[in-house]
Design goal:
Elements: E1 3-4, H1 7-10, E2 67-70, E3 95-103, H2 105-108, E4 117-120, E5 130-139, E6 143-147, E7 151-155, E8 171-172, E9 186-193, E10 200-204, E11 213-215, E12 224-238, H3 239-242, E13 253-255, E14 261-263, E15 274-275, E16 284-286, E17 290-298, E18 301-311, E19 322-324, E20 330-333, E21 339-342, E22 350-353, E23 357-365, E24 368-378, E25 386-392, E26 397-400, E27 407-410, E28 418-421, E29 425-432, E30 437-447, E31 453-454, E32 458-459, E33 470-471, E34 473-474, E35 479-486, E36 492-497, E37 501-502, E38 514-526, E39 529-541
Parallel strand pairs: 1-11, 6-12, 13-18, 19-24, 25-30, 32-39
Antiparallel strand pairs: 2-3, 3-12, 4-10, 5-9, 5-12, 6-11, 7-8, 7-10, 14-16, 15-17, 17-18, 20-22, 21-23, 23-24, 26-28, 27-29, 29-30, 31-34, 33-37, 35-36, 35-38, 38-39
């Protein structure tokens, strides 16, 4: 069943983009495998339809009346630009072919009438190599229909022995891209990865009538009940012959300490450049070493090029900050491919260090300069190996040492870096390092701790044996220093050293009833520290 697409009839205009390629790379030598690719060379001037064979070695693979038009012809059917099928000049040269991609079955007196052009290539295609395929078409306006169905077929079999309507073209015009612009040529192009051995080329409509898309042109006119295409400039070229040797023009590139450099190409926006960092510019700025790729389309073929950006800076050798033993030395290293200057003025690739300090290395390679500072220190013996420690009873004490790469042995049988102690005693750790052996001794004393006390606020000195004297009750860790008692007129009535008791009976006479004020100073041990404090208050004397 014929598919007639009426949507093309109602469109106000059909825009056909004429594609052209301007080659920026003048050193590329094309290698078109299609002989007589523009039908320019002929053995005889065509005078009527069906004389494609005059453009040797072109022929009609299904023996239909495929046409040849040439400027030498004065025949109304085969002349240029005006001929039986329309009016058009060749895309290049003096000749062009013409095929009917559809003919009404009633006019043809048979179904699926199609015309093709075929030629044997000058060389067979090589397996897995990419080729650029192209041909140009222009519709003939003296026909009832226009179509979008046309393509190129490549095969290793002589096509006259084939049913071409069962062939699968390797290049086709885009679906719904209606070929209806009579004024210009339209290029159908693409890339093809060869299977290997293909040597025969066929161009035409490889669909039967039922699957052929047809539409009426914008300005219908009387003509043949067919869809007709002029054919010219047929190309089959290895992409290797259409591409330059390089895309990136930098021979080499390097980066010094994060500086920015430019990677350049001769590409333009029409080549659709794409770098592996996502840039679509012809040239890019980079500031990191690594491999950079660019991909572009040139003369219809895709090419990829790469460049390795190396770090130009001298290597910073593995010279960590170092602790050494007294009397020993350490060898500092520098990049042997660089010019190296040490802070002591020595120009050398190595420096033997036997004194502590900071050593600065400045290395330069080409125009790139880097510097590094290495600290060298001596491992020192501890100034004091005996430590007295007071600890509150009931507390936990951690004894620990911290020396690089040391081995420990405690007199309690532990080999850890630190131990926990809970009672008074002498704790000794033997410390062994690469530089020295020594013993660290701790004298630990657990003592009562606390600064608390209680003072009564009333006494009754009446010789009844109850509450006879004023006594401040203190913690075991409290040492009384001085207790003073004054009356309400500020007169001192009692003063005692190293006591917390006002012994009223020993004062000579019992105090009178009333309010008295006391001041108490003392020494105590709390939170690991010895402290001296003073407190005051009052007490009522009752009788």
């Amino acid at each position: 069943m014929l598919k007639l697409n009426s949507k093309y009839v109602s469109r106000a205009s059909i825009c056909i983009i004429v594609l052209s390629v301007f080659c920026l790379f003048t050193n590329i030598k094309a290698q078109n495998l299609v002989p007589n690719h523009n039908f320019d060379s002929i053995i005889e001037c065509p005078s009527t339809r069906g004389q494609l064979q005059f453009a040797v070695p072109w022929y009609s693979p299904n023996f239909e009346t495929t046409d040849l038009m040439h400027e030498c012809s004065d025949s109304r059917r085969t002349s240029i630009p005006d001929n039986f099928w329309g009016s058009q000049y060749p895309a290049s040269g003096r000749g062009m072919a013409g095929i009917r991609t559809y003919l009404d079955p009633e006019a043809a007196n048979k179904d699926d009438y199609k015309e093709f052009v075929a030629v044997e290539l000058t060389d067979s295609l090589i397996a897995d190599e990419t080729y650029f395929l192209s041909f140009k078409v222009s519709p003939g306006e003296n026909n009832v229909y226009v179509t979008d169905d046309v393509g190129m077929f490549l095969t290793d079999i002589y096509p006259r022995d084939m049913n071409l309507l069962t062939a699968t073209p390797v290049l086709e015009n885009a679906t719904n891209w209606l070929l209806s612009n009579y004024a210009s040529w339209f290029e159908i192009k693409g890339n093809y990865v060869a299977k290997g051995g293909e040597k025969h080329l066929v161009i035409g409509n490889f669909k039967d009538n039922e699957n052929t898309t047809l539409a009426f042109p914008l300005n219908p006119r009387e003509g043949a009940e067919s869809a007709y295409l002029f054919i010219d400039e047929v190309v089959v070229e290895p992409c290797s012959s259409r591409l330059p040797e390089r895309l990136i023009t930098n021979e080499t590139a390097s980066i010094c300490n994060g500086t920015t450099i430019s990677l350049n190409t001769d590409l333009s926006e029409s080549n659709f450049p794409l770098w592996n960092n996502g840039s679509e510019q012809a040239s890019i700025e980079v500031n990191e070493p690594g491999m950079y790729f660019v991909e572009a389309t040139i003369n219809g073929c895709t090419m990829r090029d790469s460049i390795l950006i190396e770090e130009e800076a001298p290597l910073l050798m593995p010279n960590p900050d170092t602790i050494i033993c007294q009397g020993e030395s350490v060898l500092l290293l520098a990049d042997t491919a660089a010019n190296n200057l040490w802070s002591n003025g020595l120009n050398a690739d190595t420096l033997l260090v036997s004194s502590p300090g900071d050593y600065v290395l400045t290395s330069s390679k080409n125009s790139c300069v880097v510097s590094d500072t290495i600290s060298v220190s001596f491992q020192q013996l501890p100034e004091a190996n005996i430590t007295d420690t007071l600890v509150c009873e009931g507390s936990q004490l951690t004894l620990g040492l911290d020396y690089p790469n040391a081995a420990y042995s405690w007199n309690v049988g532990d080999t850890s870096q630190s131990i926990e102690v809970f009672e008074s005693g002498i704790y000794t750790a033997q410390v062994r390092t690469e530089c020295f052996n020594f013993n660290k001794r701790y004298f630990v004393t657990f003592i009562p701790c606390g600064c608390g006390f209680f003072a009564p606020n009333a006494i009754s000195p009446n010789n009844d044996g109850i509450n006879e004297q004023f006594e401040i009750l203190v913690d075991n860790a409290v040492e009384p220093l001085q207790l003073n008692i004054v009356n309400r007129w500020g007169e001192l009535v009692f003063s005692g050293e190293k006591t917390a008791i006002w012994e009223t009976a020993e004062s000579g006479s019992l105090p009178e009833s009333g309010t008295y004020y006391w001041e108490f100073s003392y020494r105590c041990f709390e939170e690991g520290k010895e402290q001296t404090r003073q407190q005051n208050g009052y007490v009522q004397v009752l009788k």
